[in-house]
Amino acid sequence: MQGRYGASFLGAETIEFVGKDSFYFHGFYCLDGVKGKGRCEIRNNYLYLYFENKKPETEKNRPRSAFISKTLLVDSFVNFQLKMVDENDIPIAFGSVVIENVGTRKFEMSTDSSGSVVFILRVNSNPIIIRTTSIGIESGYLELENGYNYSVKLVHQKDSLIGQELNKGEILIYEIADLSEELITMRAAKTSGTFRTYRRIKSQAKQ
Fold it and tell me: Is the pTM of this model over 0.85?
């Protein structure tokens, strides 16, 4: 099979068949999204999706959560520059940033369209605590020593409930009721669920 097929229900699934036996999968179920790729086969009226089994990233190659540079103060105020980015280094615009520092009031700010925010604190002996949040990403947390000027890039991973990736050798099996070049009617194997029709999604012509 070749091409991309999709079905909509209380959520949605798309399966794109490429090459001889490869696929790309995307599913969205309420607020839970999954994606993945791997090898597939049709056998005895069942579709088998064998997701790839990625090796865990080594500590050396794993993305760092924060990139921090600091300089000595020249007065009694800490100048703090923070940039929020996602795991692909794309700025997170209008993210929420909460700054806590005992001895000063707790206050909340938002990043600008470039994912950046700047604030100033009076120097004291207490640490600076930064909490960051935004839709679709995991919350960030950073605790820094007071008494320095800082420039920080804080990296946020995608929220696992929204962007889960199937890459640990998972297998999905579908029972097929009807199969043609234009549609596949199937349901998750070993269930009594309703058969769903996955229709071929035609590629849009380039403008």
Answer: no
